[in-house]
Amino acid sequence: MEFLSKYLTYWSEDYSSILDYMYEHILISFTVIILAVAISVPLAIYMTKMKSNKIKGLIFNIANVFQTIPTIAMLAIMIPLMGIGFRPAVVALLLYSLLPLLRNTYSGMESVSSEIVEAAKGMGFSTFQRLFKVELPVAFPYVMSGIRVTAVYIISWTTLAALIGAGGLGDLVLAGIGYNDQYMIFTGTILAIVIAVSLDLVLGRIEKIVKRA
Prior knowledge:
This protein has 213 residues and is an all-alpha fold. It has one domain (16-211): MetI-like (MetI-like fold). It is 86% helix and 0% strand. Helix 1 runs antiparallel to helix 6 (127-158). It is elongated, with a radius of gyration of 21 Å. The chain starts with a helix and ends with a helix. Belongs to the binding-protein-dependent transport system permease family. CysTW subfamily.
């Protein structure tokens, strides 16, 4: 009970700064998620239309290289290239998040059987109609799975963005470590988990609604 009492006191005294950290964390995370979807999904769709397996392999290999670099190392690489703060953190996390979305979307598009595509052609569907009315609806579960996994990863990785001055809940955790303050560490950790779980639930709900539609 003593821990809870002191923890509630900490919240009542510092709730404004806690909300600021939370806002920064959400801003970084959502910026990366939106950019990752905007880049990876169209690129994966385009890759399924490519005839050259070498180019496909090259794209996957490049994305895989980014994925194998440890998050802290990726953030550190950005410092001499872009400095510190919001932009280098977004770029580092974006590069780190491309592969899961790219791979899932590509797998989803490849799962569309040629018979379905040929049937759509026989019905007079244009290329865009086939894409949006046939192929993407079939691939949607794969795409959504990639988005959900990537979103949770990004929210977790964003905590490390504080190491290059980007802010977010990582600042709260690092400050807690520096001051040996368990309440700050606990708050930063729990809020990051809450954001990740909440977003996953929302995306899961959206997935169910779209499937029904």
